[in-house]
């Protein structure tokens, strides 16, 4: 039976995790060895549970306990469930809860790049992509369109931030990912047997449908920060510079939109 707890006091310390701590604070929360993150909406929470993440507590509208939350709570009978009406929860958290439900979960130790790439043939590389919405959207495209893993430089927004996990529809829990170490990521990937393709607008860019790209047995597809794109040094160190053909005078796409186009074309491997 679920451990239902009606919220009576906003200042209760067990509610800090939902009401008073930002994503960055939760990631380094001293109460959990690897930190904590917040999953939002039933689908995202379910995918996190299916991937083995350990729940700490739930926060939800009271009306969801016996309907859309019921299958989740049956899996976690010992986990506290804090409830209130929607206006109370919005006042407490500062935002409207998607589908009326949050779950605080423990983070896990991230794998090494070598582990993530061991059996991968197509990987996405994100360099300094700082918007959590873009990170979440890229993960969703990567999972749907043939990427085997996602690698992020240390400056990227955290894929486990609440907005990222929600926008990704929980695919951050399904596709392998980790952070790249400091230094040259192109050198790291070359050492692992990958050829690298920089998505960038350059005079020497090859078109996205260049047959050489599909013929590569292992290919890393790199996308850069919003606005400026990939660093010049990263582009120079890549084996290919790749552009998406444009029309009507449009010079570029949002990084999340560009990722979907690139992954759809390059996620296939010629046998």
Automatic annotation (TrEMBL):
Listed GO MF terms: RNA binding; RNA methyltransferase activity
Keyword Amino-acid biosynthesis part of the UniProt annotation: no
Annotated tRNA/rRNA methyltransferase SpoU type domain residues: 123-264
UniProt GO BP: methylation; RNA processing
Cross-referenced InterPro entries: Alpha/beta_knot_MTases, Ribosomal_eL30-like_sf, rRNA_Methyltransferase, SpoU_MeTrfase, tRNA_m1G_MTases_N
Key words of the record: Methyltransferase, Transferase
Gene3D superfamilies associated with the record: 3.30.1330.30, 3.40.1280.10
PANTHER family: RRNA METHYLASE (PTHR43191:SF12), RRNA METHYLTRANSFERASE 3 (PTHR43191)
Protein name: rRNA methyltransferase
Lineage: Bacteria, Bacillati, Bacillota, Clostridia, Eubacteriales
């Amino acid at each position: 039976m679920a451990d239902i707890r009606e919220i009576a006091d906003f200042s209760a310390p067990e509610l800090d995790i939902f009401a008073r701590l930002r994503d960055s604070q939760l990631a380094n929360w001293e109460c959990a060895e690897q930190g904590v993150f917040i999953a939002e909406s039933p689908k995202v929470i379910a995918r996190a549970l299916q991937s083995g993440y350990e729940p700490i507590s739930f926060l939800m509208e009271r009306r969801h306990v016996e309907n859309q939350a019921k299958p989740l709570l049956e899996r976690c009978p010992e986990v506290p469930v804090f409830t209130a009406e929607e206006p109370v929860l919005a006042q407490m958290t500062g935002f409207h809860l998607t589908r009326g439900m949050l779950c605080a979960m423990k983070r896990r130790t991230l794998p090494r790049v070598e582990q993530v790439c061991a059996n991968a043939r197509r990987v996405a590389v994100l360099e300094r992509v700082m918007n959590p919405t873009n990170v979440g959207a890229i993960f969703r495209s990567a999972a749907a369109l043939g990427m085997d893993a996602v690698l992020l430089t240390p400056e990227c927004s955290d894929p486990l931030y609440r907005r990222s996990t929600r926008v990704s529809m929980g695919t951050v829990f399904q596709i392998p990912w980790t952070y790249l170490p400091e230094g040259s990521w192109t050198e790291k990937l070359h050492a692992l047997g990958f050829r690298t393709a920089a998505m960038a607008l350059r005079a020497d860019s090859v078109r996205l449908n260049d047959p050489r790209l599909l013929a590569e047995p292992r290919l890393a597809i790199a996308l850069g920060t919003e606005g400026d794109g990939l660093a010049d040094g990263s582009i120079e160190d890549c084996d290919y510079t790749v552009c998406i053909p444009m029309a009507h005078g449009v010079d570029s796409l949002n990084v999340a939109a560009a990722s979907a186009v690139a992954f759809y074309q390059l996620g296939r491997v010629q046998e």
